[in-house]
Amino acid sequence: MNETLRKTADLFRDIARSVAPPPKLAVWEWADRNRVLSSESSAEPGPWRTSRAPFQREPMSAITDNRYETIVLMWSSQVGKTELELNTVGYFSDHDPAPMMFVQPTLIMAQDFSKDRLAPMYRDSPKLRKIMRVKSKDSGNTVLRKSFPGGQIVLAGANSPASLASRPIRIVLCDEIDRYPASAGTEGDPVSLVTKRTTTFSNRKRILVSTPTIKGVSRIEKFYEDSTKEEWCLPCPSCDEYQPLKWSQIKYDYDEAKKKTLRADHACRACGALHNEQEWKAGYETKGKWIARQDHSTTRGFHLNELASTFVTWETIVHNWKEANKAGKEALKTWINTSMAETWEEKGEQLDEDSLLRRREMYHADVPEGVKVLTAAVDTQDNRFEVDVIGWGAGHESWRIQYHIIYGDLNQAQVWADLDEFLQRTWMDGEGRRFRIAITCMDSGGHFTNEVYRFCKERLARRVFAIKGDSPGDGTYLPLIAGTSTNNRYKATVVRLGVDEGKSKVVSALKLPFVDEAGNRVAGCCHFPLSTTDRIRGYEKQYFEGLTAEEMQTRYKNGVPYSVWVKVKARNEPFDLAVYNRAAIEMLNPNLDAPLPPPAVPGGVPVGGPGSGSSGRRRRGTTSSV
Q: Does some domain include residue 132?
């Protein structure tokens, strides 16, 4: 009888919660009272304090402001945007229960987010733990769906139309929308699809969050431009002029030898006075405020870069800037996107095979000075293997070593034996060191997939890996090393590559000059050798035509712009192999700054092969991607 009464009381309580309006409370106020940060995901576990990052207060207030339907956060990394989203989920789970959907770029990322971030929050925040315990016996509580009295949260992937299937949703949180595909299958733009789920609610909310990507393609930039366009501003310690913190106004001294920032000041845009971070951020919680640059009736937009962060110092930001400049265009692009929360504007120039052909130079040895390790890439065709061997040095500077084509019928054993023999060769530098290939990536597409798997499986000890390129072609973001699998008849390790990112990295490196305006060597630049009478290198005009066989173009799907690589010439094997080699060096992850071992005595062990010396080893404390 008592159990029946308890269930009846719970039922009436749930009904009352769903009918009666909750008392007025902002998301940040709820978080300050109830949120507990989990040790798995926070460097400072324990009770949430909005005062730790006061710039989050106004966006969290805007989420519960009935005047606005959409909140846009074009924010950098290291400013707590994920925690803000989790606070929002907690608020609409406990204080104002509602049906919610949290959309990640992919379904796998949604599953990981649920396990790594959402579940710990419900577990460690007492009020959330209590409401989840009420429903703990429900079969409806899964990784991608969690119910609570008065509502539920569904985790979805922007690449999965099924996960975005029609259901009434009042609160939509879209995370990292610049990484969404242009279309969820054939259904259309994921942001538009999930927005349609909210139409039956007059008090609906849509929270759009992302670091930006490429100008003209960035979703978050487009939404931000159609908003109040607010910036977090601080008063100048000298003249009290309110202004946002801008990288262009940072003045610094940096010790290149020690890789240390000696000074980092911000210049006032009004009076020009220089003040350090502590001076600008004195009284941060009371003096900082958001200033809008335009009016908007339904959408508030907030832009925030890493300079405003209370979790990373200006000295660290300067250091990261210097390191990104050394690492090349792709690293600089990432820094602009993730640290400054700004879009990257592509210059639009196309690679020209003739200009690359003219860059060839005479090597004075098989392996030029500066090379620390060799990688190889193999393209598999029906009647041949094409192999490209590349040497890598500090800052991912690269030297092509040899482009080799092995013709033969791949149904016959001899051509496979010839490939095996080539991959075991060594190349010598000017001081007598012999280099062998440290790692090989081999294409497993085409008509000989199982044969490639067997070949690689038998040579795993030599780090010969089968790879499978993945290019969704719809703007979906995939990292270059996207995962591994052994789900094949030979249990061979197959590495999945996000080739679109790989192509961007290759093209960025090919555009780099050898030296900058000051005469300093440019990190990440590419070298090509001339053939000689006694050494045919293989880098002739046909090679460079293949290396420049694709270009990035902007396409539109249902009105949404996205970037796609398009083949503009007949053969692109050299371009593919350049991507595989880039993947190989990232999988190996050697310490390219370490000095080479002294030249071996005659008959000694060659540099770079598995177990053969420091240049082929990974950095201590790091892990391989495979």
A: yes
Residue 571 maps to which CATH number?
Answer: 3.30.420.240
Within a domain: 256: no
In whole angstroms, give the CA distance from residue 358 to residue 530: 10
Q: CA 104, CA 157: separation in Å to the nearest integer?
A: 5
Q: How far apart are CA 330 and CA 506, in angstroms?
A: 9
Contact between residue 194 and residue 170 where contact means Cβ atoms under 8 Å apart: no
| Residue 60 banded pLDDT, cuts 50, 70, 90 | very high
261-280 average pLDDT score:
95
Task: Report, as an integer, the average pLDDT of 398-427.
Answer: 96
Q: In CATH, what number is assigned to the domain containing residue 220?
A: 3.40.50.300
Residue 274 forms part of a structural domain? no
In a domain, 300, yes or no: no
Radius of gyration for the alpha carbons in the chain, expressed in angstroms and rounded: 28
Give Cβ neighbours of residue 298 (< 8 Å, ≥ 6 apart): 67, 68, 69, 70
> Which one of 226, 241, 271 terminates a domain?
226
Widest Cα–Cα separation across the chain: 98
Burial letters 426-447, b for 16+ CB under 10 A, else e: bbebeeebbbbbbbbbbbbeee
Residue 394 DSSP label: G
Distance between start and end Cα atoms, the chain = 59
**Model confidence pLDDT, tens digit, residues 468-497:** 988 876 666 688 998 999 999 999 999 999
Q: Among 177, 198, 226, where does a domain finish?
A: 226
Res 620: pLDDT: 32
Buried-state track 58-78, b at ≥16 Cβ within 10 A, e below 16: bbbebbbeeebbbbbbbbbbb
Render pLDDT for 425-468 as a digit per residue (tens, 0 to 9): 999 999 999 999 999 999 998 889 999 999 999 999 999 999 99
What is the number of structural domains in the chain? 2
Give me the domain span that covers residue 121: 22-226
Q: pTM of this prediction?
A: 0.69
pLDDT for 513 equals: 85
